Amino acid sequence: MDTNSLKAFLTIVDQGSFSEAAETLHLTQPAVSKRLAVLENQLGSRLIERGHREIRLTDAGARLLPHARTILDEIHNARVALSSNDGTISGELNIIASHHIGLHHLPNWLRRFVRDYPEVTVNLQFMESDAAYSQMLKRNAELAFVTLSDSMESQFMVYQQWSDPMAFVAGSGHELAEQKTTTLSDLAKYPALLPDTTTATYRAVSRLFLEANIPLKQQIPTNYLETIKMMTSVGLGWSVLPVSMGDKTLHQLDTGFSVNRVLGAVGLSGRRLSQAARAMLQVVSDEETPET
Fold it and tell me: Would you place residue 196 in the very low, low, confident or very high pLDDT band (cuts 50, 70, 90)?
């Protein structure tokens, strides 16, 4: 088995089609098909069923899949181990960042990283945390900066993490802003502007209302915190946002409850980080460690 054939097989599976795999690998579709055919001939088994609209792994393909990833991971690890040790850090660094981290944390990191490591080309992708985990499993990035999940799969390794305290807020002109203290029953009278039900923030807030047996009036869910902040600031409802996003357009509500989420940098277990990735983590650690 050669690495090009294994890479073609994995890319077809990850992209879900031969045409998209060809685009990802910068090859023609016949070239991708030929690489898969070579691998299937070597193994004596059909690996992928070709349908009109979708592809499907055969039993042999499903059994090969984890081994193919492990083989390519070990080749990656060998290349990293044999990379230059003269102190020069160069090459490409593929990273993913959630939209919130991209707006509120990443600029400081990149400003310093680009200054200190000018020979590294940083390739950025921005997406929601759940999507980032999926892309990491496909080896489409080396590091992801996301909201850490309590249901995170065992394949992930957390390299850095830091707390992101949150607060219940309403627009400065909202009726809730006039109250000295705010109960969950008070909040239940107004729409809740929260991210999607799959997010850690929603689960934390929802749990409070469930335990108090109080209905939560969810409205217009979106995972873009800047959009939620805007909708909250103009009085469409209340929300729970990072304290760091607070300004004069928002009023922090005294509910007696605290909500906190954890942000962090994750990679894949068993996949060695490049020198560039390790340098980025050091920058993140320096920037996110509170000064004493």
Answer: confident
Q: Which pTM value belongs to this model?
A: 0.84
User: How many whole angstroms separate alpha carbon 93 and alpha carbon 122?
Assistant: 5
Q: How far is CA 16 from CA 19, 61, 191, in A?
A: 9, 14, 39
Q: Given a cut of 70, is residue 52 above it in pLDDT?
A: no
223: three-class secondary structure by DSSP: coil
3-state helix vs strand vs coil in the chain, percent to 5? 45, 20, 35
Q: Which residue has the tokens 């496909």?
A: 138
What Rg do the C-alpha atoms of the chain give, in angstroms?
A: 23
The 3-state DSSP class for residue 45 equals coil
DSSP 253: -
User: What residue type is assigned to position 146 of the chain?
Assistant: V
Tokens of 150: 């309590």
- Sign of the dihedral through C-alpha 164, 157, 77, 139: negative
Token reading at 167: 């607060």
How far, in Å, are 18, 74, 85, 133, 148 from residue 157 at the CA level? Answer: 31, 17, 25, 11, 11
